[in-house]
Write a structure and sequence with these properties.
Elements lengths: L8 E5 L15 H6 L1 H7 L3 E4 L3 E2 L11 E5 L6 H13 L3 E6 L9 H9 L11 E2 L22 E5 L5 E6 L14 H16 L4 E4 L29 H13 L6 E4 L5 H6 L8 E2 L2 H5 L4 H15 L7 E3 L8 H4 L4 E7 L6 E7 L1 H15 L5 E5 L20 H5 L44 H5 L5 H14 L7 E4 L7 E7 L4 E7 L5 E2 L3 E6 L7 E2 L3 E7 L2
Parallel strand pairs: 1-2, 1-15, 2-5, 5-9, 9-10, 10-11, 12-15
Antiparallel strand pairs: 3-4, 6-8, 7-8, 13-14, 16-17, 17-18, 18-22, 19-21, 20-22
Length: 542
């Protein structure tokens, strides 16, 4: 099918946490292959695999030491070949996480650059600068790293003297590449070809808008880096080159960019000749309420329309608090007994029941609006964030880089629960997993939810089946119902053959649904009406 990506359902797998086949407590490629039937039954069109390239794992694979090798933690190139073939046999495409902004400091290029010394061609592949102050002992600028601290780290020169500084947007172990150097573009185009030749269907490009830095590296008022990404930025030449590589292969291979920029900037990366899809983080940050969700949809569609790009919708991923927890914005008081004190400290906790109910409603919006939808593993189970991991078990580099002030993203990366009534819930043969799983997930396993007709998994399976059967869903022209109350989101999705009305009630009272065939509701109706924090799809009569 031509341009399959325009309305695809893409399932994001965080490889460490999906399924462990070799019993070491960490997910791997063979584990993913063993669970492909589950994904086919769920009804996804493609997979997005988190980074599995050879890496020291300082940032869990986002520090790549060899872009053409699989890290032994996850398996081998042969395992990847088997996974790709098995997925294709089930009609599922495979896309990979691609990290062009930086390499690992263990990458041969960087190690050679340090050894080669000042002014060498090897150092020109990265951003090496002399320091400021006496003996160059101060960083070249005041730019700050995303993970905390300075963006500059000093090397020791081959003669043992204190040397130049190199720039890193993230951790010191992730030196940024100099994309003004033509060797860098040539190398990464070749890396793309390496994987395309093995049958990969596309790439999700990490930090896609961050490749180009102001070469002067001037101080800024708040230490923020200057990263040109407007219409005239050289970064767009990079993506035009990537697009030429993708277009040279059959089968509609794609590029998906990650950027936190404004909608209008995002659209620049989707112009003809550049990338196919870009994440819209407006949907992640919205709601759950009618006004913010409508604004997210409206602004995304409006920004993409002039360049003819399909929208991309997402509520959960490996970097965000899971939506069940985010949406539990109604708080309840929890008594926390403090030993040695006569009082009970009052703390707040998310209302996970309310969060799950709202997540069910937003799921029907996510899967209905025109465009592609990305699901994060466990989202279809309604997994909450795990925010009470002991500090000694935290793995995210943000924890250390922030001086133990920011806990990081481990809470959304807990391994997937498959079956059984206690950890590790079928994820691994090892009782000790790389991040611990809570006992409370016994009712949230795939096994438990598959047997429950009212579960989140059943809702997702039903909704994805209906989306395939009714082309208006995810594809139809969207028209808002302007007569709906402010707390109700209502719109029609129309094709030449049918119209589906989508209604989401975020008000306090039930609402009457329009006449027609009820396709699905996120919760049971109340006397034929849609209750609060609920959504429904209705096929309307002509």
């Amino acid at each position: 099918m031509a341009e399959w990506w325009r309305d695809a359902i893409v399932y994001q797998i965080y490889p460490r946490s999906f399924a462990d086949a070799n019993g070491d407590g960490v997910g791997d490629l063979r584990g993913i292959t063993a669970r492909l039937d589950y994904l086919a039954d769920l009804g996804v069109d493609a997979l997005w695999l988190g980074p599995v390239f050879a890496s020291p794992q300082v940032d869990h694979g986002y520090d790549v030491a060899d872009y053409r090798a699989i890290d032994p933690l996850f398996g081998t190139l042969a395992d990847m070949d088997v996974l790709i073939a098995a997925a294709h046999a089930r009609g599922i495409r495979v896309t990979l996480d691609f990290v062009p902004n930086h390499t690992s400091d263990q990458h041969p290029w960087f190690r050679t650059a340090v050894e080669a010394g000042r002014g060498s061609p090897e150092r020109a592949r990265y951003h090496f600068r002399d320091g400021r102050g006496p003996g160059g002992n101060r960083p070249p600028s005041n730019w700050c790293a995303v993970f905390g601290g300075s963006s500059w780290t000093r090397v020791t020169e081959p003669d043992g003297s204190p040397g130049q500084w190199y720039y890193h947007l993230f951790a010191a172990e992730q030196p940024d590449l100099n994309w003004a150097n033509p060797e860098v573009l040539a190398e990464f185009c070749d890396v793309l070809r390496f994987w395309l030749d093995r049958g990969v269907d596309g790439f999700r490009i990490d930090v896609a808008d961050g490749l180009i830095k102001d070469p002067a590296f001037p101080d800024t008022p708040d230490g923020s880096p200057i990263i040109p990404k407007g219409a005239d930025s050289p970064v767009h030449e990079v993506y035009r080159a990537f697009r030429r590589v993708l277009d040279a292969y059959p089968g509609d291979r794609i590029g998906v960019i990650e950027t936190g920029a404004d909608d209008e900037i995002v659209a620049l990366f989707l112009r003809p000749g550049e990338m196919h899809l870009a994440f819209s983080f407006r949907f992640v940050h919205a709601g759950p309420d009618a006004a913010s969700l409508r604004e997210a949809v409206t602004r995304t569609l409006a920004a993409n329309a002039p360049v003819g790009a399909s929208a991309t919708w997402v509520t959960d991923n490996h970097d965000t608090t899971r939506s069940v927890t985010r949406y539990g914005s109604l708080t309840k008081l929890v008594g926390a007994y403090i030993p040695g004190e006569r009082r009970t400290k009052v703390v707040t906790a998310p209302d996970l029941a309310a969060g799950a109910r709202r997540a069910r409603a937003v799921a029907l919006l996510l899967l209905a609006v025109p465009g592609a939808a990305f699901l994060y593993q466990g989202q279809e189970l309604g997994l909450p964030n795990v925010d009470d991991l002991p500090e000694s078990l935290l793995q995210d580099p943000i924890w250390e880089r922030s001086g133990h002030t920011v806990r990081g993203r481990d809470g959304c990366r807990i391994p997937m629960p498959w079956a059984g009534d206690r950890p590790p819930f079928g994820f691994s043969a090892s009782p000790r997993t790389w991040l611990p799983m809570p006992d409370s997930w016994a009712g949230l396993t795939v096994e438990a939810e598959a047997a429950d007709l009212s579960s989140m998994l059943t809702l997702y399976r039903d909704a994805l089946r209906l989306r395939r059967e009714h082309r208006a869903l995810g594809r139809g022209a969207l028209r808002w119902d302007e007569a709906a109350s402010p707390d109700v989101l209502a719109f029609d999705l129309a094709t030449a053959d049918e119209t589906v009305r989508v209604v989401a009630n975020f008000g306090t009272t039930p609402v009457t649904l329009p006449a027609g065939e009820l396709l699905v509701a996120s919760v049971p109706l109340e006397e034929g009406r849609l209750p609060r924090d609920a959504a429904a799809w209705v096929r309307r009569r002509s």
